[in-house]
Each structure stands twice: as C-alpha cells, then as structure tokens.
Amino acid sequence: MSFRIFCLLLWLLLCASSLAIYFALQPSPGLIATTLACLLLFQLAYFGSVLLLVGLAAIAQLSQRLRIFGIYSKTRNHSSK
C-alpha cells in the first residue's frame, strides 16, 4: 500500500468517526472540528509509537549483529596492562 493511499484511508476513517460522533450526540458544529483534531492527534501518537518501536527493534537487532562479530559487547574489558 502506498503512503498516499494510506493517508487517504486514514483521512476517510477520521472523517467517518467524526460524523458518527456528530450524528450520535448531535453536538454543535464547532465540535466536529475539535473531534477531528483529537482523532488526528491520537492517530499521530499511535503512528509515532509504532515508529519508535520499529526503531528500537532495529537498534536491538543491529547491536546483536555487532555483538556476534565481536565489535560490540555489553561487558567490554577495559583493563590496562
């Protein structure tokens, strides 16, 4: 799935959620924009947390590879002779 399609689907989901809240609760029209903004912030926080977890997993995998080749180890011997 391309990023453009992902953004389009995300926008449609946010608009659909906003309209569902509007029709369910019959709030003032200004509340639709607030609801949409809050939903967008929640989606951005979720997306950011997923990116953070992917980054941490990549760092852990890289450190494991470096440890296998002896380049990096948690308990390096720094004793001088």
Describe the protein:
It is built from two helices and no strands. With 81 residues, the chain is mainly alpha-helical. Helix 1 (3-25) runs antiparallel to helix 2. The chain has helices at residues 3-25, 30-68. 77% of the residues lie in helices and 0% in strands.
Topology:
Blueprint: H1 3-25, H2 30-68
What's the short version?
With 81 residues, the chain is an all-alpha fold. It has helices at 3-25, 30-68.
Query: Based on DSSP secondary structure assignment, what is the total number of beta strands?
Result: 0
* Helix count from the secondary structure assignment: 2
How can the largest sheet be summarized?
none
Mean of residue pLDDT?
A: 77
Element-by-element helix/strand order: HH
Whole-angstrom Rg? 23 Å
Helix-and-strand structural type: mainly alpha
Strand content: under 5%
Multimerization state:
single chain
As a percent range, the share of helical residues equals over 70%
Low-confidence stretches: none
Principal-axis shape equals elongated
Distance between the ends: 58 Å
Write out key terms for the chains shown:
77% helix, mainly alpha, single chain, 81 residues, 0% strand
